[in-house]
Amino acid sequence: MTAEPPPRVRKPETAPTAADLAERDQYAIMTAGSAESVRGSAKTWETALTAFITLITAGVIIKGRDSIADLTIAWRLPIVVLAGGGLLLAVVGLWLTVAAEAGTHPETRTLQDIRATHGTFSAYQVYLAVQAAQRLRWGIRLAAAAMTLLISGVIGAWLAPGPATPPTFITVTHGNSTTCGTPEPAPAGQIRLSVPGESQPAVIRIAQITTVTLTSTCH
Amino acid sequence: MPVEDPLSGRGYEESTAFEWTEKAFEKLENGMLRGEVIASRGIIRSRVWGQCPACEHDLDDRQTHTAVTSVFGGEWRDTALKDGGAGAAQPAYYQVDVSCGCGHAHPCAPGDRTGCGASFRVELLLQTDGSGDQA
Q1: Which pTM was predicted?
Q2: B66·A12 Cβ contact <8 A
């Protein structure tokens, strides 16, 4: 035994009021303007997101570090992932935002096709607006994620330690003394060091040296 | 003294009297007036066509009941789809307010306006065409 299908019409309890009709007409205006509304919004978002991405990219310039090649692999890898992922998401996000504004598949459609598929032209316009709005929402989400990744990458680049300073001093132990300084040309059998704070270089015979150590400072 | 349309006997008169809603319901039941509300791809549209309950001229009213109201973080689907659309336990009925747009210029109509001025309400079963409206 199958259940009776519900009646296709039901008697309304009230008639429409003048206010109901006025609202209906106002709503029809909003429905007709749906596509333009989304396009306008997409244009605004596109401009704003482009500005945000540009601003973040400028953050790298302010820092002055134009290469991460001299970072250690432990810093370089995550920064590359963040920056690369951020740029990829930014491109996709902005593409979706532009697509929401301008569309992606120009094609010809007949009114008959539209009526067959969507019922009315007005419903078709709303359908296009909904499609554009969905693209725009994803575009905004991806651009927001891109900005987060890019900002993280920039901050990571700021915080990453710079390349290790090569040692420019040597510390020499000779007899009971230790002398630190910058090596200078010296005659055979000697080491000549320019010692910070001293006006005259220190001259040490090689025969007296027990250890030589490279250092980055003499402190 | 109001001037009457020679065919329908009705001059232009804006009216939302319940009488027209009742007559519209009767005409829907006996097939003189037909109506449908369809949800397709998340968009609800309606069509009411047949005899106007007031002037009895033919009318064909088409409306779209969904609009993109807010782009960011908002809703664009009509709530009827989510709360009581097809697939819900109870059948969903959709109210459609129709103003006579029969295309006849009734006597005393303002400007170039057509129709007799009567407005009425119908409640129709919401149907889906299966294009992604079950979500």
Answers
A1: 0.64
A2: no
